[in-house]
Specification:
The structure holds two protein chains of two kinds.
Chain A (H helix, E strand, L loop, with lengths): L7 H10 L4 H19 L2 E4 L1 H16 L11 E5 L27 H8 L3 E6 L33 H8 L5 E6 L5 H7 L2 E4 L19 E6 L2 H11 L17 H4 L8 E5 L9 H16 L3 E5 L6 H18 L18 H12 L2 H14 L5 H24 L2 E5 L15 H5 L6 H5 L3 E9 L5 E8 L4 H14 L15
Helix pairs in contact in A: 2-3, 5-6, 7-16, 10-12, 10-13
Chain B lengths: L5 E11 L38 H13 L11 E4 L9 E4 L6 E10 L2 E14 L3 E4 L7 E4 L6 E7 L6 H17 L12 E13 L5 E3 L2 E4 L5 H21 L6 H4 L1 E7 L4 E6 L10 E2 L10 H9 L5 H12 L3 H8 L2 H22 L1 H6 L2 H23 L10 H12 L5 H14 L3 H7 L8 H14 L1 H8 L5 H12 L6 H13 L1
Classes of the chains: A alpha/beta, B alpha+beta.
């Protein structure tokens, strides 16, 4: 048996039947990582010894007939902005937290361990999750497994690339304005951003607190459902997590949604969208039509340009506040050779943060400043409320909204690094869903002629994850995109 | 001109709430723990942590707001206030900016000839910072203790309704008493549980536009005793007057705005910390990690209904129902236990006196006389027990009724008042009843004319000087002779009878 070709759900069954051990599954993932990591650089930290030890424990416990968790023996990666108390550093891909070891684990990490997952390592990201290409990592970019000269997207680029390259079947990411969905699309995997409040943020290093949400990246819809099942639910340590029952996502996954009504916003097919991307998405919509779904033109007038503007004010404002704590006083990088306290703050932060983080701190600080607050932060908050209303109105007519996840397929490394505004537009179709605090999913829907994956974005109302997964699964069953392997896995690149 | 300058003073008061744990994490609030021993990732502001609101703190804050007559709005929210300082690990403080827990109330303070209402603008909750300590001997490093970080802090902002340093002190005292009586905070000044920030300006007169004109507003930071707030305000009023007299046109609010000053406790002077140009921009914005607080109306009414009696009500009751003077009432109010103990003793006193004297008690003892007699015991003996022995009413080894029995023994003439004090002390020490102590130690006073006559004659013989003085018309000399007679009787003589005997013998 070649475990790497198994989905997490298949792996789970094989381990359950005794056809595969957790140790074998973990070993094969570690071997794949060893082989591919020099080319892809998806990870910032690996813990092979711990992983193998835990896998052996899982196998022993299973042999004793103990009840096993949902993810028993399944190798899983987490983005390096989740705190882990396992002795690995939690860096957020930033110099300012280089070597910082959290004395506690994030809620989701505790949940993974509680479900007997094997956490093999921590994945690369744009520094503090700020970026759309993983090029903002202080520790070097991650490469797209489908084309090593291209970016994997971001900020959860390490998680998306690791799953796409079949180094691990499952990875967790965080999504603030598209950071799960956009890299999922660019790497040809499934990525789900749950409703704000569905998953506890405790132990997720904050970028923009009112937008950050944790979600799964996986090769199939079923695997995404499995991982979401493991981490979703209320946590009293996160006041914004919602005490609402978690449905059994796997139980209903194979049930198609009868009479599905799909809203297609014309704004998601504007001038910026690449022709090949649009064609792939239109074809996917055609598949739904053939399955009996009804397509309706809808309008989300503020969901693109306005949303980008509002997003980059709200997110940077919150970031400027959340990142104030990195000052070199209590933990993290402290510069040497400072003259006084203010100097210590300035030097430590100047040395510790990368350019994009500094840019966003400055933007956010400006937006919150006396005399500018009303024109920027407050106005952005109003736009945000309007976007929420727009979606609420659309969801009175249709069940889900569909469009491309990104305007283009993966771009080249360095292509947009000198032009932040162009980079920001990578998120043009994903930010409105984040601002509206609702759920969104990206599922692979084909490839460009150059062999680059394209993602179909499906957006649903708050707490519609179960429906989103079923809708995505309807499409996935009709196609076989998930079976295609990136050239790097075949030893070609 | 100076007389026309009316001080206009508002006060921001911060007080620690009496919660077991901090405002946003489960760390204990403790004042004597070793440095940094009561901290966790949340109050240390580590990456990825989130605040969880302490509901008890909200309840206490709402209780205080209700007692101040504030409205509890339908929605209160949390905001972040940003500034960089090593005692603030997140470099922002979670506070409440534009939608606090309580708005619009008042506090009554005693002033000459009555009471004055001081308006309350708002009451809000926020987290305290840690303590930064600079190296002794002027080294260039500092250390920080974060035990206090995250302690729930209630901020109460008054209207600028006070006009003198004395009123500021009266307001501060009344606010502390209210918080203590309601169980909202212990307000121990030494522990920094109550801190004051007065805003001072003098009204200069009326401008051409008909609006009042003021001297620049001074805010004095972090005063932590009644004395320092009173003295700092007095100092500032005097300083404003001088500045204003030196430059009446220039020294105005329009010209100079608001400045922040510090207070040097040892030299009793203020000093400039920040002028208007250096004012902080705190970049407030809504705290995204906490959901707004939407109080349930039923819950608010429950908090109101379960509120302990306010000091105003207790004070009024002590005066109106128990006949205490304003002064005695204040003495009782200084200690919650005393204020609670007093009515119990007074009621027992009533009961026993009624039994002993019947209708005569009713006719001879108007309310004021009872207040004077029972109040005197409290003002003298109970206060002494607290001040000298550190024993407060809840630690007394006798009941309210037993204390009343002692008082009645004096009224009946069984013992004299001085012996009463002695018996009181013995009761504190032994817990025995007054009657038992009097019996065991033979302390009953002697009114036996035969024995007292013998003592009086001896005293006259032994003190010819004072005796002659009294015979010669010096009334003052009698006191000395009475004292000697009391001493000779071992304190047991009835002083009234002794006096009568002496007068009869010397002038009869």
């Amino acid at each position: 048996m070649q475990p790497l070709n198994l989905t997490a759900c298949e792996m789970r069954e094989a381990i359950g039947r005794g056809d595969l051990s957790a140790r074998e599954a973990t070993q094969s993932c570690l071997a794949a990582i060893e082989r591919l990591e020099p080319k892809i650089h998806a990870f910032l930290a690996l813990s092979p010894q711990d992983a193998l030890r835990r896998a052996a424990e899982v196998d022993e416990r299973r042999a004793r007939g103990e009840r096993m968790g949902l993810l028993a023996g399944i190798p899983t990666a987490v983005k390096d902005n989740f705190c882990t108390a396992d002795g690995q550093a939690t860096t957020c891909a930033s110099r300012i937290l280089e070597g910082w070891k959290a004395p506690y684990s994030a809620h989701v990490v505790e949940r993974l361990l509680g479900e007997d997952a094997i956490v093999v390592g921590k994945t690369n990201l744009d520094e503090f999750a700020m970026g759309s290409s993983t090029e903002n990592s202080a520790f070097g970019p991650t490469r797209n497994p489908w084309d090593l000269e291209r970016v994997p997207g971001g900020s959860s680029g390490g998680s998306a690339a690791a799953v796409a390259a079949r180094m691990v079947p499952l990875a967790l990411g965080s999504d603030t304005g598209g950071s799960i969905r956009q890299p999922a699309a660019l790497c040809g995997v499934v990525g789900l951003k749950p409703t704000y409040g569905r998953v506890s943020r405790y132990g997720l290093v904050a970028f923009a607190s009112s937008l950050d949400q944790i979600g799964p990246l996986a090769r199939t819809v079923g695997d995404a459902a499995l991982l979401l099942q493991a981490v979703a639910g209320h946590d009293p340590r996160d006041s914004t997590s919602v005490p609402q029952a978690v449905p059994d996502y796997l139980a209903t996954l194979e049930e198609p949604v009868e009479g599905l009504r799909i809203g297609v916003p014309k704004e998601f097919f504007g001038t910026g969208v690449d022709g090949e991307v649009e064609r792939a998405v239109r074809e996917a919509l055609g598949v739904y039509e053939r399955l009996g779904a009804k397509l309706t033109d809808v309008s989300l007038p503020r969901a693109t340009e306005h949303a980008i503007a509002a997003y980059y004010l709200v997110a940077t404002s919150e970031a400027s506040s959340n990142l104030a704590r990195y000052d070199g006083v209590h933990y993290g990088h402290r510069a040497g050779g400072y003259a006084d306290m203010i100097d210590m703050y300035m030097l430590s932060r100047s040395e510790g943060f990368g350019d994009e983080v500094k840019r966003r701190i400055m933007l956010g600080t400006y937006a919150l400043s006396a005399g500018y607050y009303d024109a920027y932060y407050k106005k952005a908050a109003k736009v945000r409320a309007l976007i929420r209303q727009d979606y609420a109105a659309v969801f009175r007519q249709v069940d889900v909204v569909m469009g491309p996840t990104t305007p283009t397929a993966a771009f080249r490394l360095g292509e947009k690094t000198d032009d932040p505004l162009t980079m920001y537009l990578s998120d043009v179709y994903t930010v409105s869903c984040s601002l509206a605090a609702i759920a969104g999913l990206s599922v692979p829907c084909g490839f460009t002629r150059a062999g680059l994956p394209v993602g179909l974005q499906i957006i649903g109302d708050a707490f519609s994850e179960e429906r989103l997964l079923r809708v995505a699964r309807m499409y996935e069953r009709e196609t076989n995109w998930a079976r295609r392997r990136p050239p790097v896995c075949e030893g070609k690149s | 001109m100076a007389e026309a300058l009316t001080p206009t003073i508002g006060l921001e008061v911060h007080l620690h709430l009496a919660t077991r744990t901090k405002l946003f994490c489960p760390c204990a609030v403790e004042y004597d723990a070793p440095p940094n021993a009561r901290v966790c990732p949340v109050c240390l502001g580590m990456p990825g942590v989130l605040p969880v609101l302490n509901e008890r703190a909200v309840e206490l804050a709402v209780r205080m707001a209700l007692a101040l007559g504030c409205t509890i709005p339908d929605l209160a929210k949390w905001d972040r206030k940003h500034y960089y300082y090593p005692d603030l690990p997140k470099n922002y403080q979670i506070s409440q900016y534009d939608q606090p827990l309580g708005v619009g109330g008042f506090l009554e303070i005693p002033v000459e000839g009555g009471v004055k209402r001081i308006g309350i603008i708002r009451v809000h909750l926020e987290e305290d910072a840690g303590k930064l300590m600079h190296a002794e001997g002027g080294g260039n490093s500092s250390v920080v203790d974060l035990n206090r970080t995250g302690t729930p802090l209630l901020e109460i902002v008054s209207e600028p309704d006070m006009n003198s340093a004395e009123e500021v002190r009266a307001y501060s005292t009344a606010l502390r008493q209210l918080a203590v009586y309601l169980g909202v905070g212990e307000c121990n000044m030494q522990l920094g549980q109550m801190r004051f920030e007065p805003n001072i300006s003098l009204r200069i007169g009326t401008g051409a536009d008909g609006r009042p004109r003021y001297t620049p507003i001074t805010e004095i930071k972090n005063l932590n005793s009644f004395r320092s707030v009173e003295h700092a305000v007095a100092f500032e009023i005097a300083r404003h007057r001088e500045e204003c007299e030196a430059d009446p046109k220039g020294y105005t609010l329009e010209n100079l705005g608001k400045q922040t000053r510090g207070w040097m406790d040892d030299r009793e002077v203020t000093f400039l910390q920040r002028s208007k140009e250096e004012a902080h921009d705190y970049r407030y914005f809504p705290e995204p990690d906490l959901v707004p607080f939407v109080p349930d109306r039923k819950w608010v009414e429950e908090v109101r209904a379960s509120m302990p009696e306010t000091p105003q009500k207790i004070r009024r009751r002590l005066i109106e129902e128990y006949g205490l003077s304003q002064y005695y009432a204040e003495v009782m109010m200084q200690d919650r236990e005393v204020a609670d103990f007093y009515p119990k003793v007074a009621v027992s006193f009533d009961k026993i006196m009624g039994r002993e004297f019947g209708n005569k008690y009713v006719s001879d003892w108007p309310l004021a006389r009872k207040g004077k007699v029972v109040g005197n015991w409290f003002n003298q003996d109970v206060q002494r027990a607290i001040n000298e022995r550190g024993i407060r009413p809840n630690d007394f080894r006798f009941t309210a009724e037993q204390l009343a029995e002692l008082m009645v023994l004096v009224e009946k003439g069984t013992i004299n008042r001085n012996t009463g004090t002695e018996v009181f002390n013995r009761m504190l020490e032994t817990g025995k009843s007054a009657a038992t102590i009097v019996e065991e130690e033979s302390l009953a006073q002697t009114s036996d004319a035969g024995e007292l006559e013998r003592i009086v004659e001896q005293v006259i013989a032994a003190n010819p000087g004072p005796a002659d003085d009294f015979r010669g018309g010096k009334d003052k000399a009698l006191g000395r002779l009475i004292g000697e007679a009391m001493k000779a009787s071992g304190g047991k003589a009835n002083p009234k009878v002794v006096r009568e005997l002496l007068v009869r013998k010397l002038r009869g």
